Amino acid sequence: MTDPERTAEGHHVVIRGRRWRASDPELPDGIRERLVAHLMSARRDVGSALRAQDPEAEQRARGRVQLAKEGLGERGSPWWEMRIHERRHRWEESLRSLDTG
């Protein structure tokens, strides 16, 4: 699979003509892989909760999606406006919450 097109400044990726915030490029590969695994699991759980018509499970799963996206730098404060130690703290806290949740 090829990498998606990026905007000139590198802050966003363009997929089917729509801009999405890019993941933090400073994320170490192992951290990125763990966050993506949590994200995919949470998205599957959102779908399961919707099919089961379980709003509480859906809310929990959507919270995990949010945590993973924040850890990746795709939500919350823009990673390009943060210092590296703030970004590291954000991904470590996201992983800590997702790993224990």
Structure, explained:
With about 100 residues, the protein is mainly alpha-helical. The chain has one domain. The protein is about 60% helix and about 10% strand. The chain has three helices and three strands; from the N terminus they run βββααα. The protein has helices at about 30-50, 55-70, 85-100, and strands spanning about 5, 10-15, 20. A three-stranded antiparallel β-sheet has the order 1-2-3, with no helix packed on it. A hairpin with a 5-residue loop joins β1 (about 5) and β2. α1 (about 30-50) runs antiparallel to α2 (about 55-70) and α1 (about 30-50) packs across α3. The longest helix has 24 residues, at about 30-50. It is globular. It starts with a strand and ends with a helix. The mean pLDDT is about 95.
| N- to C-terminal distance | 31 Å
Mean pLDDT: 96
The fraction of residues in strands falls at 5-15%
The order of strands across the largest sheet is 1-2-3
Morphology: globular
Q: Which residues sit in consecutive blocks of at least 5 with pLDDT less than 50?
A: none
* Helical stretch tally: 3
Order of SSEs:
EEEHHH
Class by alpha and beta content:
mainly alpha
Radius of gyration: 14 Å
Oligomer: single chain
How is the biggest beta sheet arranged?
3 strands, antiparallel
Helix content: 55-70%
What is the domain total for the residues? 1
Organism: Nocardiopsis metallicus
Region (Disordered): 47-68
Protein name: Biopolymer transporter Tol
